[in-house]
Amino acid sequence: MPIPASKSHTIRRLFMAALGEGVSDIEHPLDSLDSRSCLAVCRALGAVIEVNPAEQADRQSVWRVRGIGSGAAGRTGNAPREPLDVGNSGTTLFLALAAAALGKEPITFTGDAQIRRRSAAPLLQALSGLGIQVSSAPQGCAPITVQGPWKGGKVSLPCPTSQYLSALLLAAPLAPAGTCTEIEVPLLNEKPYIEMTLAYLDAQQVGYEAARDCSWFRIMGGASYRPMNGPVPGDFSSAAFPACAGAITGGPVTLLGLDPGDKQGDKAFFSMLQDLGAQVIWEKTNDTWTVTVSREGPLKAGRFDLNATPDLLPIMAVIASYTEGETALVNVAHARIKETDRIAVMAEELGKLGVWTEELPDGLRIRGNRTAAETFPVLRGGRVDGHGDHRVVMALAVAALGAEAPVEIQGAEAADVTYPGFLLRLGAVPMD
Q1: d(CA 245, CA 306)
Q2: Which of 173, 196, 298, 372 could form a disulfide with 223 if both were Cys (CB 3.0 to 4.6 A apart)?
Q3: 262 classed as catalytic
Q4: Element at 292 (helix H, strand E)
Q5: Cis peptide preceding 252, ω within 30 of 0
């Protein structure tokens, strides 16, 4: 099964190419609702983006981006007048806020109902400390307006989500020459995503100083981004769902398009599967990796720290439902501030399928429904609600594979945010 391209990589490349010099060809990007929202925002900021140029017809998918270049730090007269809609994409919102702050005219951002409930307050406070004018709805929610110029300075930025810090790290090098941005980071969740962002700065030969533990950064302005070409890696976050299906059903499920050397933190899911008792086999043929997931014996319970990988909480909650014993998912309180409160939502929806759960302040305890004598079914069927959250929808769809009766998922269309076509691959039947 081919895995879609990484959303995190796609959106970072789009912003860097849009703010950079020259023309970039982003090959095999994730074509989903979130990445299309990012594409639209980058266009509104001035980038010229062509989807699948005619002369590239022999390649599967290419987004050609002509960046706005050095004018990003001093642009005047052509800022969008209407609010820019980021849809459901929090990554787009946070990165766009910092990118727009490089200009001198006010730019406003909004989004769907979920986005308008997600706070950007720590990021807005940091931008304000760098000389940027900011205004927002209460609690730092959208609609949000920012207006540069970026003057630099020293700010403190607690990061319950790493996207706040990635936003500053990607924008600060493009501030005017002589500008210094110093960031103290008293709290950092999801550290692997910062390592991904820093890898992009390293590839662009952008200089910065950083503490080893990512608790402090100093970035000088005056840099520019060169064209970014090449394929986007597969998405480990998306791969977790079919991989879990292989572990639950016994498989085998073979996945294509992943690179075990990639910086994505969610590749840790495959180690977690092994800890739970599944078999995971990586193979490389002619520079192409495949990973196969299967299971022979019962799945075991365990304790998992998800601080670096909060997007795995929904699918880890599902696989825990199929284990013998009690599993703890901990140190992941920031899962409550994603598209939904994923801790509360997964407890509620799995409960409807007959799974015992207990909410913790920072996670979940789940008592698996499987015993050594059981194969299937493990869960009962019924009607559940995806709460408009793509990862909750996909997790519940996988949970249904071992249910004794059909599972109907309200709001299943949200899966298209990051993984178009996934539900059909599972054999889901659309409801009238």
Answers
A1: 20
A2: 173
A3: no
A4: strand 288-294
A5: yes
Q: Which two tokens stand for residue 357?
A: 């759960």
Q: How many helices (H) and strands (E) does the chain have?
A: 12, 23
State how far the Cα of 345 lies from the Cα of 359, in Å rounded to an integer.
10
As a CATH number, domain 236-425 is 3.65.10.10
Q: Is 27 within 8 Å of 46 (Cβ atoms)?
A: no
| Distance, first Cα to last Cα, the chain | 28
Q: Which of 25, 85, 262, 311 is catalytic?
A: 311
- What amino acid occupies position 86? V
Beta strands in 87-132 (DSSP E): 107-110
The total number of residues shown for the chain amounts to 432
Helical packing angle, 121-129 and 90-100, nearest 10°: 10
Where in the sequence of the chain do the CATH 3.65.10.10 domains occur?
A: 7-223, 236-425
User: Across-strand partners of 327?
Assistant: 366
Q: What phi and psi values does residue 347 have, to the nearest 5 degrees?
A: -60, -45
Instruction: Write out pLDDT tens, residues 320-370.
Output: 999 999 999 999 999 999 999 999 999 999 999 999 999 999 999 999 987
359-410 pLDDT, tens digit each: 999 999 999 987 544 555 679 999 999 999 999 999 999 999 989 999 999 9
Architecture, CATH, for domain 7-223: Alpha-beta prism (3.65)
Distance CA 119, CA 352 (A): 30
Contact call for residues 270 and 246 (beta carbons, < 8 A): no
Task: Determine the average pLDDT of the residues in 90-114.
Answer: 96
pLDDT at 118: 95
Nearest CA to 369 out of 293, 299, 296, 275 is that of 299
For residue 242, give Cα distances in angstroms to 245, 282, 346. Answer: 5, 15, 18
Amino acid at 25: D
Please identify which residue in the block is written with the tokens 């796609």. Answer: 10
